[in-house]
Amino acid sequence: MSPKKKPQQDSHKRIKITLELKRKIIEKRERGVSVADLARTYNRSTSTICTILKNKDKIKEIDASKGVTRISAQRLRVLDDVERLLLIWINEKQLQGDTINENIICEKAKVMFADLVKKTPGSSMAKEGAFKGSRGWFEKFKRRTGIHRVVGYSEAASSDTKAAENFIGDFKSLSEEGEEEVTAKQQSSGAIREMLNAWETVASYIEKHHPNKAVAMRATNLFNDNVVSHFHQILKHRQKQMSLDSFLVKEELDIS
Length: 256
Prior knowledge:
The protein is mostly helical and 256 residues long. It is 70% helix and 0% strand.
C-alpha cells in the first residue's frame, strides 16, 4: 500500500488581522499600493481588503491596544450614540452661553463613552481598548456634524481664547450689533421684510437638502432664535408704533 498522502497545508492560511495591521493596510493603500497587492501580501481576498478600506475612518478613530483584532458592531453603535448625545450637549451649552473648546468637548466625549460602556450589559468593549477622544476623531466629528467654530487642539486653546468664545458668541454678537439704534433706523421695514423672506427661502432649502437634516434644523433654529428674531421684533415694534400714531391722530381729529 502506498503511504497515506499527507493533507496539503493551506498555503493561504489566514492571518488574523489586528487593528494595528488594518491601519497598516490603510496606510499602504493611501500611499498607492493596489488592493490586489494588499490582498496578496496579507493572504486575504480583495473583498476583505475593500471592507477594511471602507471602514477606514472608523478604524482610525479607535485608539486600541496592540493585539486587538476587531472593532465590534456594539462599540461602533456606542460611538454613534456618543456623537449624537455630544451634539445635543454642545447645543445646550451654546444656548446657555457657556464657553467650550476642543479639549472640553473631547473630555466630555470620553466620559460619555465610559458611561455608555458601563450601562451596556455583558459588554466586552473594555477589552477592545479605550476611546481616547483624539484630535483625529474630533476633526472628523466636526466634519460630520457641521461644527466648525471651535478652537484648535490644546496648544491653540490657550492662545486663541477669543476664537473659543466665538464658538458660542458669534450669533449673539451679530444680534447685539443689530440692536444698535442707528442701524435699526437706517433699515426700512420693506428691506427687513425682504431679508426675512429671503432667509425663509434659504432656511427651507438648507433643511430640505442638507445631508444631516437634524443638524441643519438645529442650526437654522439657533440662527432664528439668536439673530432673525431681532428683526421680527423691529417690525412688531414699528407696527405697534404705527397703530399708536394712528390712534393719536384720530384722537386729535375727534377733539378738533
